[in-house]
Fold this sequence. Notes:
Layout: E1 13-18, H1 23-33, E2 38-56, E3 61-67, E4 71-83, E5 89-98, E6 104-125, E7 130-134, E8 139-142
Parallel strand pairs: 4-7
Antiparallel strand pairs: 1-6, 2-3, 2-4, 2-6, 4-5, 5-6, 7-8
Amino acid sequence: xxxxxxxxxxxxxxxxxxxxxxxxxxxxxxxxxxxxxxxxxxxxxxxxxxxxxxxxxxxxxxxxxxxxxxxxxxxxxxxxxxxxxxxxxxxxxxxxxxxxxxxxxxxxxxxxxxxxxxxxxxxxxxxxxxxxxxxxxxxxxxxx
Length: 144
């Protein structure tokens, strides 16, 4: 286990993503435009298309599930960090979705198109969290 303490500013970024906008790209853009070093976010709303996935440790690859219907976003949660020595934000998000019958789907969010609106709070963190590639996991993980 590795950890360190950081601080947060006394500001929260309040975001409304509108219909037909792509969520991950929007979060990348807002992190760049507001110069958010790192942060965490949470949101609710609705989508009309998404790609969610499950990381298969054995194959070190994601198993995707394409969703092409309107669903409620029960929870969107994630963090903003950066791959080591890169300037583009890395958005790591997980999502829980519900269909018309209240069946629930969830996983790693690769992409999503907003169906009605998506309301997100971003809490910026003062330090830059960076990720390095871990060959044994096949993933970019937080740098110690």
